[in-house]
Amino acid sequence: QQARFTGRTIIVTGAGSGIGKATALRLLGEGARVIAADISAERLAALQLESGSERLVGVAGDVSLQADVDALVLAAGPTVDGLVNNAGIMDAFLPTAEITDEVWERVFRVNVTSQMRLMRAVLPGMVSAGFGRIVNIASEAGIRAGASGTTYSASKHAVIGLTKSTALFYGPKGVRCNAVAPGAVKTNIEAPFLSAWAAERLGPIMQTTIPAPAEPEDLAASICWLLSEDSPNVNGAVLMSDGGWSTI
Length: 248
Ligand code: NAD
Hints:
Elements: E1 9-13, H1 18-29, E2 33-38, H2 41-51, E3 56-60, H3 66-76, E4 82-85, H4 101-129, E5 132-137, H5 150-170, E6 175-182, H6 196-202, H7 204-209, H8 216-227, E7 238-241
Parallel strand pairs: 1-2, 1-4, 2-3, 4-5, 5-6, 6-7
Bound molecules: nicotinamide-adenine-dinucleotide (NAD).
Residues 13-14, 16-20, 37-40, 43, 62-64, 86-89, 110, 137, 139-140, 182, 184-185, 187-189, 191 line the site of nicotinamide-adenine-dinucleotide.
């Protein structure tokens, strides 16, 4: 493997499982100092054991809370070169008329507000350094409606808006901000789009056209490409990393 991130400090949220964990491990393998955030201290401890790396700093906390974001950024230190806004949760596949305020507020807090708060916290330092690489994790549900319930779809569409607007404002200052939109990936997230419940609500079409779920490492490869200097001209892009699901 190359070492594209030697000397770089990169924050990864939701690093205790799935896509975030694979990304943290790949970044460590490529030389980065990784600030790994997760709400689960147990998962972070397991990641620490698995990586055995002194360049991993685990910070347990809820990235949807400002106080926990402050603690995370403090642990990273004065220079943050990269940020992967990956932590996210599902919405139980609820259609609009069945959305509860609790689900709406929680999904937006975790999937959208956390990304804004983390970018807000690291951007001033990136602007002073004239260098920053941000990757926000969207979803197939960020470009259309058939992959989740309404709340999750709306939250992932918001992630794409956040990403494009950040790219526009900060691209001229040396910060690139892009989104990766995964299709189905084998992780610990609920996958209601693969369930009988989803089949009943959407009909069989979505079920039969979903490509086989990807490995978290496949997504880590896409995310690390956008964080790296192999993608110098890419800013404000939404990289579909979904095995072609979005072509259907
Ligand atoms: P996962 O559940 O395996 O991992 C997510 C991690 O985030 C968990 O370790 C969890 O503890 C942590 N987390 C959740 N809420 C948190 C919070 N408030 N603060 C800090 N940590 C928190 O899920 P995953 O599939 O790896 O999901 C990662 C991202 O990929 C999410 O944004 C998800 O929406 C997106 N995504 C996943 C899929 C898929 O099929 N797995 C598809 C499209 C998009």
